[in-house]
Structure formats: C-alpha cells, structure tokens
Amino acid sequence: MNKPAMPNSFRTGPDEQGMFGIFGGRFVAETLMPLILDLEEQWNKAKNDPEFKAELQNLSTHYAGRPSKLYFAEGLTKHLGGAKVYFKREDLNHTGSHKINNCLGQILLAKRMGKKRIIAETGAGQHGVASATVAARFGYPCVVYMGATDVARQSPNVFRMKLLGAEVRPVTAGHGTLKDAMNEALRDWVTNVEDTYYLIGTAAGPHPYPELVRDFQSVIGSEARAQMLEQEGRLPDVIIAAVGGGSNAIGLFHPFLDDKDVRIIGIEAGGRGLDGVEHCASMNAGKPGVLHGNRTYLLQNADGQILDGHSISAGLDYPGVGPEHSWLRDSGRVQYEPILDDEALEAFQLTTRVEGIIPALESAHAIAHAMKIVPKMDKDQLVIVNLSGRGDKDVHTVAKMLGMEI
Ligand SMILES: *Cc1c(COP(=O)(O)O)cnc(C)c1O
After folding, report:
1. Nearest atom, ligand 1, residue 249 CA
2. What is the CATH number of domain 30-53+98-213?
3. Apex CA 360: angle with CA 358 and CA 366, to 5°?
4. What is the CA(347)–ligand 1 centre distance, in A?
5. How far apart are CA 312 and CA 345, in angstroms?
6. Residue among 92, 98, 103, 386 to mutate when testing ligand 1 (max atoms within 8 A of CB)
7. CB 363 within 8 A of CB 96
8. By alpha-carbon position, which residue is closest to atom 2 of ligand 1?
9. What integer pLDDT is reported at residue 2 of this predicted model?
10. Among 150, 184, 276, 307, which has the highest number of CB atoms less than 10 A from its own CB?
11. Among all residues, which ones are annotated catalytic?
C-alpha cells in the first residue's frame, strides 16, 4: 500500500472535517449533526478558556491525584537486564486508571454546555464506573449502556455503578458487548438531543471526540516527557502503551510524536493468535471501514460484518481503534504490535512479583512487549511503559486462567 506523505508535524491533526488523512470524520445521522457541531464549537472555546483549564487542573490535582508519578521500575529492569524501564503510574489515579482524566474533562464540558443528563457506554465497566463517578461528583443523572453479556460477566462493576447512582441499561442487540452498547448510546443521543451529553470513553467515535479525548489524555504524555527530562536529563528511547480504543496510548504518544528519536509502540490484543478470529488486533489483522461515526481499521469478515474479537483483557476488547492510530500506523510514525493472552498473563505475574505492583491486564500487554525488547537494548537506554491501570479488577480472570479458585 502507498504510504501517505510525511507531514512536517504529526501533532496538527485532525483537519476541519475531523480527518486524520483518510481516517476519522463524522459519519452520523442527520439529527446528530447539529449536536456534533455544537460540541466542537464549545470544545474549541473551552480549551482556550483559562477558567475551564483552571477548574480541570484543580480537579485533576485534588480529586484524581495528578500528576501521576514516573516510576523507575528497578526490579523489572534488573530482571530483564537491558534498558532502564520506567512506569507512568496511571494506576494511582482515583478510580484506578487513566479513564478519570477524560471523564473529568468531559463532565466539565457537559456542565458548561448546560446539559442535564449524562449517557455513556461501557464494555468491561471501567469507563462506566469512571462516568458514574464524575456524574455523582457533579450531581447528574447518568445512564450507562452495557451489553447484556458484559452485564452478566462484570457484576462487581455493575454494582459499583449502581452504588454511584447510575442506571445500567443492558443491551441485548447483537452479541451484547461493547459495540452494541455504543450503538445504543448513539441511539439514545439522537432521541434526547437537547438535554443529553454523551460521554465517550475512548479516542474514537465521530469528530470531535477522538480529538477531545486525546487532548484530555495528553496530560499523560506531557507529564511523562517533562518527568523524564527532569529525572534522566533526556528523552526516552522507546515508549509503549496498550491500545484498546486507543485513549491511554494516544495520551502518552501525542506529546512525543514530533520527537523523531523516540520510538513509539502501540500494543494490540493478540488474544489466542492472529490466525483465527480470537484477537482484537484491528490494525494488524483488520481492514478500514466505518463504525461508530468514524473511518478506521476494524475487525471484519469477508462480507464487511464487524467481528466481536477476543482478549483476556476486557478493556482491549473493542473491534475498532481510534482513527488517529490508524493514521499513525499507515504513516509509519507508530509501530503496532500484537501481544498474546498468555504473554500478557506472564507479564502480569512477573510485574506483581518483582515490582509489588499488580498491573491491569491491559497494561500487562504493554509490559509484555517491553519484556521482549528491553533485554536486547543497552543499559543506558530508557523505556517508558504506560501503566494505564491497576489490576485488582483482574484477579478473578487471572485466577481462572491459572486454574485456581479464589
Ligand atoms: C479501558 C482501559 C484500557 C483501554 O482503553 P484505551 O482507550 O485504549 O486506553 C487500557 N487500560 C485500562 C486500565 C483500561 O481501563
């Protein structure tokens, strides 16, 4: 395939139409168009408003716990015997992952726009919990759409959302997973255009969501870049993050995109291998198509039907990927690699044993890739792995995989 021309900067997208090259855009129903345009306009105003920035900064510090630390993972570094490994500690945020960064930003946007009601979609429930959290904090009614299959297999998160005052609506369409929940949330939005704010959980969906979610998550990379300069006096050689929809990854990557000497690697869920359909590696094994309002790489069969995919890690279990990643893939700026369930499981256990940190299974995918490349690197080289979340939520899955009873 032809590579698109290399731009002078990888940090200027998307264009006016919300396109990153041939990816992105806003493929939505007519009725949603005015809302999408309004959201874009309000976002453009908000992001340059000192008052909005100050309120977000204040909440990020005192409610979410930012800045998150850049931690030298000495135990893992010794074990691997190569480059120095650092973890960006998003696991230490309130609610246990990077998702709060985006939810705080969007709830302030909803407030500014005078919305009265929050809707969100969730797969494993992590984004549902983060949305219910900020809705509780700001006193909004919140409806979370969740596939019926996911409701059944993620009962602790369903209970958390209920405790936080949210209503969880199970979606039985399709296979009852994240893709179906997202469709249902978009449908709700079309019917309740006036008073409802749709809080999307990853850097996907119609423009301007991929851009605004990226901007809220870019705090990860901005902090990490400054912290590395302060702690080591130079930029890292490699940065790595796991890619579900792609929000924690683009958040880490974006501030580094124009640092030519920094190698950037996104990790997709390789599941049980890329030969079959039991994976979620849309950029390594998918094809471009349109889903949830944007054009991007998707898992699809020969007829263009969207596949459900599989990953040991529920947060990576999304059949698409944010459009900016598709563009970064085709332009060659970012390399995307798959990691198998078993490899992630091994990284999960190793990190727990040598660091005393239980990583989310999503983050364990990124660590697993570090385990492959770090031993081959020089001891004076530097690697940052985004520790997108903590793994307490995953202990049941891991016990089951290891054939143990809790
Ligand atoms: C949701 C989640 C992910 C995947 O979502 P992205 O939008 O790709 O970041 C990764 N890690 C954790 C801990 C999550 O909760």
Report:
1. 9
2. 3.40.50.1100
3. 105
4. 17
5. 9
6. 98
7. no
8. 315
9. 56
10. 150
11. 99, 121, 388
pLDDT tens digits, 319-350: 999 999 999 999 999 999 999 999 999 999 99
Bridging pattern class, strands 84-89 and 117-122: unpaired
In whole angstroms, what is the distance from residue 339 CA to residue 392 CA?
Answer: 21
Three-state secondary-structure class, residue 243? coil
Q: Is the CB of 244 under 6 A from ligand 1?
A: yes
CATH architecture of 65-96+218-401: 3-Layer(aba) Sandwich (3.40)
| Secondary structure E strands in 32-171 | 70-72, 84-89, 117-122, 142-147, 167-171
Prediction pTM value: 0.97
Its sign, for the CA torsion 134, 139, 140, 145, is positive
**Sheet with 117-122: strands ordered across:** 167-171, 142-147, 117-122, 196-198
Within the chain, which residue ranges are assigned CATH 3.40.50.1100? Answer: 30-53+98-213, 65-96+218-401
Answer yes or no: is the C-beta of 247 below 6 A from any ligand 1 atom. yes
Residue type, 68: S
Least Cα distance to 135 among 157, 115, 156, 159 occurs for 115
Residue 5's pLDDT is what?
Answer: 63
Query: What Å distances lie between residue 360 and 97, 109, 326, CA to CA?
Result: 9, 29, 24
Q: Ligand 1 pocket test: pick from 133, 214, 265, 388 the residue with the most ligand atoms within 8 Å of its Cβ.
A: 388
Q: Ligand 1 pocket, 246 CB below 6 A?
A: yes
**39 contact partners, CB below 8 Å, separation of at least 6:** 109, 113, 208
In the block, residue with structure tokens 């699809």:
300
Ligand 1 midpoint to CA 341 (Å): 16
Identify the segments of the chain with pLDDT beneath 50.
Answer: none
> Could you report the per-residue pLDDT of 210-227, keeping only the tens digit for each?
999 999 999 999 999 999
DSSP-derived secondary structure letter, 60: I
Ligand 1 within 6 A of 270 CB? no
5 CB-near residues (< 8 Å, 6+ apart) = none
The reply to whether ligand 1 has any atom less than 6 angstroms from the CB of 97 is yes
Contacts of 153 (CB under 8 A, 6+ apart): none
- Ligand 1 pocket residue status of 360, Cβ below 6 Å: yes
| Mutation choice for ligand 1 from 240, 250, 316, CB with most ligand atoms inside 8 A | 316
